[in-house]
Amino acid sequence: MNELISYTKDGELGIITVNNPPVNALSPGVPEGIGLALEEITKDDEVKAGILIGGGRTFIAGADIKEFGKVTSGQKRDGINFLDLLVAIEDCPKPMIAAIHGTAFGGGLEVAMAFHYRVAVASAQVGQPECKLGIIPGAAGTQRLPRLAGVALATQMCADGNPINAKAALEAGIVDQIVEGDLLEGAKAFARSMIDNPIVKTRDKNDKLGDEATNAPIFAAARAAAKKAARGMMAPQAAIDAVEAATKLEFFAGCARERELFQECLFSDQSKAMIHAFFGEREVAKIPDIPKDTPLIPIAKAAVIGAGTMGGGITMNFVNVGIPVLLKETTQEALDRGLATIAKNYSNSVKKGRFSQEVMDKRMALITPTLGYDGFEEADIVVEAVFENMALKKETFAALDQICKPGAILASNTSTLDIDEIASATSRPESVVGTHFFSPANVMRLLEIVRGQATSKSVLATAMDLAKKIKKVGVLVGNCYGFVGNRMIHQYGREAQFLVEEGAQPQDVDGALYEFGLAMGPLAMGDLAGLDVGWRIRKEHAHLEKPGVRKALIADELAERGRYGQKTGKGWYIYDENRKPSPDPEVTALIEELTANAGIQRREISKEEIIERTIYALVNEGAKILEEGIALRAVDIDIIYLMGYGFPAWRGGPMWYASTVGLQKVYDRVCEFHAQHGELWTPAPLLKRLAEEGKTFEDFDKEKVKAARG
Ligand code: 3HC
Ligand code: NAI
Question: Which listed ligand is nearest to 392 at the C-alpha?
Answer without folding.
Answer: 2
